[in-house]
Design goal:
The chain is mainly beta and about 160 residues long. Helix content is about 0%, strand content about 35%. The strands form nine sheets. The protein has a two-stranded antiparallel ribbon with strand order 1-2. A two-stranded antiparallel sheet has the order 3-4. A two-stranded antiparallel ribbon has the order 5-6.
């Protein structure tokens, strides 16, 4: 009689068949001692690598198997991330791979919002950069009000 033996008794994580280990799901190696990762962390696509049964994902990927694409800079909180492609869909007024660039020629400042390619200014502010509409904000000696298409100081 001959006895069938396998390395380390297949680490009790598989069966010995014809002197070779047939490992249980999630284990591999000659003696079934190596913990495997789901889909091997898509390592062939450079999504991540397996460390002791858990995926260590590259910065562009997340998820249990590094299967969820991450968008650059989380779309700068100005867009929606497509987790299949890792591409940002930017809100109106923003562009670029991470939605960090304004589509307006100048920054609209804190008193305006970029819509399309122009600044829409708050009341009392005007121009490409949404600056105070009246010079020196009427120097404190009047009220800045819109008259027709322009702003003027009124006492």
């Amino acid at each position: 009689c001959s006895t069938v033996t396998c390395p380390n008794d297949c680490s009790f994580q598989g069966e010995c068949v014809s002197n070779k280990c047939v490992c249980d799901t999630g284990f591999g190696g000659d003696d079934c001692s190596v913990k495997k990762c789901p889909f091997n962390c898509y390592a062939v696509l450079d999504h991540g690598f397996c460390v002791d049964g858990k995926c260590a994902c590259s910065s562009s990927w997340a998820g249990e198997a590094c299967e969820i694409a991450q968008c650059p800079n989380k779309c700068s909180a100005r867009g929606i991330c497509d987790t299949a492609s890792g591409a940002c869909s930017c809100e109106a007024g923003y562009t670029g791979p991470d939605c960090s660039s304004s589509t307006c020629p100048v920054d609209c400042g804190e008193h305006g919002k970029c819509t399309g390619s122009t600044c829409v200014c708050d009341t009392g502010y005007s121009g490409a950069a949404c600056l105070p509409a009246c010079l020196y904000n009427c120097s404190g000696a009047g009220v800045c009000s819109k008259l027709g298409a322009d702003y003027s100081c009124f006492c």
